[in-house]
Amino acid sequence: MLKKHWKIALIFLLVIALFIYNTNKSNDSTKPVVKIGSIAALTGDYSNWGIELKNGLLLAQKLSDKNTKYSYELYIEDSRGELRTTALIANKLIADKVNIIHTLFSPDALVLSEMQKTNDFIQVAATWMKTMTTANPRSFNHWPIIEKEVSILLDEAEKRGYKNLALISVKQAGAEYARDVFIKEYKKRGKEFVGVYDFNFGEKDYRTSFMKLKEKKPDLLIVNSFSPEMEISIKQAKEVGITADWTGLELGFNSKHLDFHEGKWYIGPTKMTEDFSTMYKKEYGIRPAIFAGNSFDVYNMVVKAYETAGRDLPDDELPNLDEVAKVMSSFKNFPSAYGTVSVNQDGTIDSDVAIYEIKNGKSIPQ
What we know:
It contains 13 helices and 15 strands. The protein has helices at residues 2-29, 47-63, 83-95, 106-116, 131-134, 146-159, 173-188, 207-214, 229-239, 251-254, 274-284, 290-309, 321-329; strands spanning 33-40, 71-78, 100-104, 122-126, 139-141, 165-170, 195-199, 220-224, 245-247, 265-269, 334-336, 339-343, 349-350, 353-359, 362-365. The longest helix has 28 residues, at 2-29. The protein has 366 residues and is α/β, with parallel strands linked by helices. It is elongated and about 70 Å long. Helix content is 45%, strand content 20%. The protein has three domains: 1-28; 31-144 and 272-352, Response regulator (Rossmann fold, 3-Layer(aba) Sandwich); 146-269, Rossmann fold (3-Layer(aba) Sandwich). Helix 2 packs across helix 12, helix 6 crosses helix 7 and helix 12 (290-309) crosses helix 13 (321-329).
């Protein structure tokens, strides 16, 4: 009889527990859901950047306040660094009614910008291209303003005594945009580059162009490219007899071979705060790289924008995208992985930049 009573009591407790679980689940599911999509290379040549982005998003979600009006779901997708795959994923996310799409790189941002013309979502990118945000009030760019980076690089080059500057860029939308900003800014200063050269991804032989450049005796090469093209072009410049020093926008972030650039200086986004770095290292066992802070900020800004825009709405109603974008556009001195950031009228999320020097295989802020 006692055994029978224990069985009845156990069944009763299980029923109560199941009821409580389902009630909690039901309460959570009654919240309207904000879907945050992320497209980045989690495999392939640029997977280190994509994994940083993924880690930053997941850390922000884990640390975020759970007492919110809305639920926030992440949809993190692997583009493999392929533009065609980015487009396919974006279509899938749009079909799934994702509200926000976060991505890296200018070509990907341009693809999403085209899709925004006929689809409803907010884009937050990390790109050198300011035109991406000016074309659509629902577009934001969380990256230092390219004009600021270029100006500081040229100032630093002048301080260091360089006089004959040459510009080498890969044919990629962001790099080409940066090239044009360099030419415009240098011309404003009454100067011209002794050479401007563009190369395709995958190109292996630059010697013909560099033989012509050698005659102009450059003393500084500004290389806006990525590994391996970055290192190949510099090696071949040396091979033809160019003795110039070199630098570049975000050179230490875009290279996979920092030992090759030992002792070189460059311009890049300001370093992440010690508080954020400590939280990240506690979670993942390593210090964060650049895109981790970027995606961490994006998640927190999206949550803040939705909670603010929907504050006075019925509990079952999400704010429309225009209202969310309007709130995001108003952020000033927003707490960030980089200290604080502010959103400009053109949708750029403005953060500081820094001068770095590569020492012992590491980028050290100066």
